[in-house]
Amino acid sequence: MTTYVLRRLLWVLPSLFVVFTLTFILVHATPGSPWDESDKPLPAAVKENLARQYHLDDPLPKQYIDYLANVLRGDFGPSYRSVERSVSEIIAATLPVSAQLGLASMLFAIVVGVPLGALAAVKHNTWIDYVSSLITVTGIATPPFVRVSLLIVFFSLVLGWLPTGGWEGIFDSRAIIPILAIGLGPAAILARYTRSSLLEVHGQDFIRTARAKGLTETAVVIRHAMKNALIPVVTVAGVTLANVITASFFVERIYSVPGIGRQFVDSVSGRDYPLLLGIVLVFALLISLVNLLVDLSYGFLDPRIRYR
Amino acid sequence: MRKLVAFSLLVVLAVAACTPTSSGTPSPSGAAKLTTLRLPEAAKIVNTMDPGISSGGAGLEQIQNTFEGLAYVDQVSGEIKSGQAEKWTISPDGLTYTFNLRSGLKWSDGQALKASDFEYAWKRATDPATKSRYAQTLWPVKGAEAFGTGKGTADGMAVKATDDKTLVVTLERPAPFFMHLAATWTAYPIRKDTIDKNGDKWTLTKDTYISNGHYRLVEWKPEQSMTVEKNPNYWGENNGPDTIVWTLYDDVATKSVIAYEAGEIDRAVLVGADITRAKADATLSKEIKKFERQGSQWIILDTTNAPLNNVKVRQALSLATDAKRLNEVVLKDAYFNSVSIVAPGIPGQKKENALGFDVAKAKQLLSEAGYPDGKGWPANVKFTFASGAAETKAIAEAVQGIWKSNLGIDIVLEPMEDKAFDNWRTTRKDQPFNMYVSGWGSDYEDPNNWYNLLFDSKADFFYAHWKNTEFDNLVGQGLKENDVAKRKTTYESADKIINTEAPYITVYHWARFDLIKPYIQGLNHYRVLGRIQGYLVKVNK
Amino acid sequence: MTTRAATLDAPVPIRRPASLWRDAWHRLVQNRAAVVSLAYIVLLLLIAVFANVVAPFPFQQQDLDNTDLGPGAGHLFGTDGLGRDELSRLIYGSRISLAVALVDVLIVLVVGVPLGLAAGFFGRWVDVLVMRTVDVLLAFPNLLLVIVVITYLRAVLDQPQGPLLGIIGSLDGITGGLLGVFIALGLVSWLTVARLVRGQVLSLKEKEFIEAARMTGAANGRIIFRHLLPNTLAPVIVAATFGIPGAIATEAGLSFLGLGVRPPLPSWGILIAEGVRNMRAFPHELLFPAVVLAVTLICFNFLGDGLRDALDPKLKVD
After folding, report:
1. Domains of chain B
2. Strand order of the sheet with strand B225-230?
3. Interchain pair C263, B272: CB under 8 A
4. Contact assessment for residue C188 and residue C141, using Cβ atoms and an 8 Å cutoff
5. C81 vs B: CB within 8 A
6. Which of A125-139, B14-28, B275-289, C20-34 has the lowest mean pLDDT?
7. Going from the N-terminus, what domains does chain C have, and what CATH number goes with each?
8. Which residues lie closer than 8 Å to B206 by C-beta, 6 or more apart?
9. CA–CA separation, A156 and B16 (whole Å)
10. Is the confidence at residue C316, as pLDDT, over 90?
């Protein structure tokens, strides 16, 4: 077990390295520079100095090695577009916001999605099942940017309950709309998977045994079926992280949340490569670690799975 | 389990209902009621809040409210007025400007402001090591261009503080528009000690962002908001609001309207369908305000490759473009209808020179050019555009349809990701294309800023690759001409040529379309580089 | 020895699949929600194929005298900002959106499921390779790759050289500029399913019936296709149906950036994205495409549920 975890942790490094290298190659192949201002071109001398300052005039392999060395030392370099803040400072300021938002959204998704899915499975093929399907599918059918726009119009303009945007911490009313907008997608996904894998285990022998013992349906679901049904659900919970990250791109932008997702979009559209590389590495690390946690949880849920 | 669902929904709703939805700063009740002006701004401050480096765009309004130059452009009349300089004298040859600073000038932290602060700022902005995005503004100063291109030195730049209150500037050659340049943000004074101490980070905090204008920085939360308060050390009066708060949005046009209607901000930017909605709305329709901006938006044609190298084809396309409906219907009247290539108000611009809209004539010309009813029209004439801008996409789609029905020709729409488009556009300098959309707004109200800077074949700012010797000669004469009336007629002749040759098709002239709360007075956008000046605004709330 | 040969040879592969599919079909048609959904999807496919016959107007036909009309007699679903018929644009848009959905499902089935099976079943370096690739791709800024490929491609396609570029170019042309969307989907849409299937396989692998199959000496391929694959079907179907809205949203996002379908060609994603911008002034421009998309997805889900139930080998015992 310990060796398995250690080995998996060791694998994170080459993964990050591959992500870093591929992204580096890609950003230098992408057309457009951070300084192609749309109408007024920069004087040649200024452009040269900018290139020199950011070492863009060095040969690519040298840039790559220098940058890699800096990153290994924990220095992501300056942001091209925000001269007053370094990449590390931007990430340090924005990552906690997105982390809070992401965790709250996941929590919301689990608290709403899993029970909703279980309910649908227990009442399989009844109107409750159909209504639950309808809710979850409608949740996933509206893309995040539509979802957040509709939520803003509804809660801020029609009802006048919530501010139209901004961020004052996770316990402020400004967090509600982004949490809903990000969390609804994963909630729908979790509900569907819970339903389908509960149905899957429903017909199996040990459930029938449990029923035969005279346990109530709820006890059967919670004590026996649920645990076995959780494997795909947990897997999805890991994968929904990607879903949460993607949704945060749109939601943070539209709701003016100063998070890392918004910085990611800006860094791509503004060609702020050091910032982009920094954020991509953060995402890669996060995804690798969460997937490791997910793999470990298989073992807890199903002792038959062994780690080699 | 059902209970759990119900409960979690209930929690969300309860939190939503109970949390107070306070917005803005609550004004303390008391004798002196503090006023706040709440404005929208784009989240991504362009480049920096450093006036010496900024190229304008988002961030300029904040810079202009916190700093002041030797002179400023009055935002109502457009006249040059004295700012930090009490007066200035110009030598008879028009080359030497001597500025006398007001006495008792102070920085926002209370330290005395000296003429040497200007000298430092001007030389710093010109120094290529500063990497100013707007350095050329000061290039008319003697020795500045050489310094800025790495051929000269700071000492060679003819700007000198002869004492604490006198700044002497010598120009390379006479420039009638120089006071406009001296009023530009690039020429604002800057405090050397804060830059030496804090480097690029000097713009970030209240203590380091030392300024000399009507307001001073209180707080800048990147990508969230920027707050300024009245600067007690400003030399003059300031009857504006006590504080100004800018909320920063990624998509100002979409988000500011919603925040405005929710009562969170006092001004909104209107575009597209929201204009139609606001006009039909009982309340909003009274709060609409449309301001002129001296600018033009064009479809730019490459005049060097077929079929657009044929002047008749260009004229036909221009005559068949129903620009009035493009603005009024497709763009929901967000702008002002097309008049001619150069924006109205620039000396030389004459609306009679424009080709106008005439489908019959357009068909005739297209047929003369060898494409009767569009027959034989090449298959891959491309209209390239940056698809991030919804309006440009709408223009491209609409023009495709309009030309198809008016002339029977097909064009191909070529959308590009925004930065890829920027890159594509920059490389058009020496590469062929067919057409794309771009525009220009006056930096100062002078024909030089248009005919010479944009259209002269030596400048060819938009890479239309259009060259007309007569036009080049005329605008060259105009630049040197000192007689105002003669200058105007010279540019008018040039205006006639460019409109007839049609390297550009005007889609509309620029505007600002705002919603402004009824308790706000004096909020104005001047037509040239207009930004909201807080000291002119009254908040009667 | 002989008995094993008898049970494993001739009769099994011939008879059982036939009855499996027949049984499945039987169960499917008994599920009313699934039947209605199937009918809707078939109808939608027909509409997409015969869009030029069904649509009342050409999708690009503008009418600047009648822009932003609400639903009415002349235009059942109203018109958009250029006076184009919304219904016709929805009908033509179904082509793009269904094509995108189809490609997404194909990628899930052809790439995601086999890789997940292999990773879970063989473990060791196969598992490491597949799962680390998934990690990398999840974190990778795919958007950049799409920008690079599309921008270079379109620049090169102006002067197509060589057969390869010609083929790629005509592919991009035929699909109306969807190549970027397909690349993006190819990179990401199989990741979820691969992880999911792997997780299932890990748990199934240790179960008695797999052990039993192994004891009887069944080959790896047989274990995978006969025993593991059918048992991973449930999450695969859900994943496939859920991938569709993601794929349609991806298409909308990329088209919005100018990396997808070439205007004035419509897709549902584009119609929704444009509708959101106008939703307060002209709600119908968001309402119709959003409702059509939602209904379609609900039908895909109900059909998926029906298929799952129908194909579930365990339900047969009951």
Report:
1. 1-65+199-266 (3.40.190.10), 69-187 (3.90.76.10), 292-511 (3.10.105.10)
2. B36-42, B243-249, B225-230, B215-221
3. no
4. no
5. yes
6. B14-28
7. 20-50+79-315 (1.10.3720.10)
8. B216, B217, B218, B219
9. 11
10. no
Is pLDDT of B541 > 70?
yes
CA neighbor of A163 nearest in space, from B263, B472, B216: B263
State the pLDDT confidence band at A206, using cuts at 50, 70 and 90. Answer: low
Domain A96-258: which CATH class? mainly alpha
User: Whose CA is closest to B333, among B488, B491, B511, B483?
Assistant: B511
Q: Please report, in angstroms and rounded to a whole number, the separation of the first and last CA atoms in chain A.
A: 8
**Residue A289 — very low, low, confident or very high, per pLDDT cuts 50/70/90?**
confident
CA distances to C70, C77, C118 from C73, in Å: 10, 9, 56
* AA letter at A265: V
Helix (H) or strand (E) holding B244: strand B243-249
Q: Whole-model pTM?
A: 0.87
CA-nearest of B512, B59, B519 to B253 is: B512
Most confident of A77-86, A139-148, B322-331: B322-331
**Which residue is closest to A139 within chain C, CA to CA?**
C294
Band the pLDDT of A209: cuts 50, 70, 90. confident
How many angstroms away from the CA of B314 is the closest CA of chain C?
A: 23
Task: Kindly state the tokens that stand for A92.
Answer: 């340090």
Report residue B208 as tokens.
Answer: 């380091």
Nearest to A161 among B21, B44, B202 (CB): B21
Residues B83-99, buried b or exposed e (16+ Cβ, 10 A)? bbbeebeeeeeebebbb
Give the pair of three-digit tokens for residue B20. Answer: 């107070």
Average pLDDT over residues A272-289: 87
Ranked by mean pLDDT, which of A53-57, B145-149, C294-298 comes out on top? B145-149
Distances (CA, A) of C17 to C112, C221, C306, C313: 24, 16, 19, 12
